[in-house]
């Protein structure tokens, strides 16, 4: 039976890997990229509905850019580089949409409740919201 020390240290190297600056970036990128699933799961369980928080996209963007850097600066195949080369596009787009949605939310002048964009009345107190056109 192997000890924990034997499992972690193989051939005199941690995890049997040759450690370089770029392999550390790759492993850290992998960790950050994987963390996003737990963050998304946490928010989904908390809200009791499927939620993709803005932090999910930041973790996706950061992790994939670190993995892309690792793929470019390490002796790896083009397949690995291509798989991360364009991943940042939907991540950035989702971050922009999250930000725009947050900025478009309306604050109720009476009770300060945060109301959805284009809401006509405050859902908390019923006050008419400023952006809504007057009736008639
Ligand atoms: Zn209100």
Task: Explain what this protein looks like in three dimensions.
With 136 residues, the chain is mostly helical. The chain has 2 domains: 4-104, no CATH class; 108-136, no CATH class. The chain has helices at 4-8, 21-47, 54-73, 78-85, 88-104, and strands spanning 9-10, 13-14, 106-107, 114-115. β1 (9-10) and β2 form a beta hairpin. α2 (21-47) runs antiparallel to α3 (54-73) and α3 (54-73) runs antiparallel to α4. The termini are far apart. Bound molecules: zinc ion. Zinc ion (ZN) is lined by residues 108, 110-111, 113, 122, 124-125, 127.
Number of helical segments? 5
| Largest sheet properties | 2 strands, antiparallel
Name every ligand kind in the structure. Answer: zinc ion
Total strands: 4
**Helix-strand pattern:** HEEHHHHEE
Core attributes:
136 residues; mainly alpha; 2 domains; two-stranded antiparallel sheet; 6% strand
Write the layout of secondary structure elements.
Elements: H1 4-8, E1 9-10, E2 13-14, H2 21-47, H3 54-73, H4 78-85, H5 88-104, E3 106-107, E4 114-115
Antiparallel strand pairs: 1-2, 3-4
The protein binds zinc ion.
Zinc ion binds at residues 108, 110-111, 113, 122, 124-125, 127.
Please give a quick description of this structure.
The chain has 136 residues and is mostly helical.
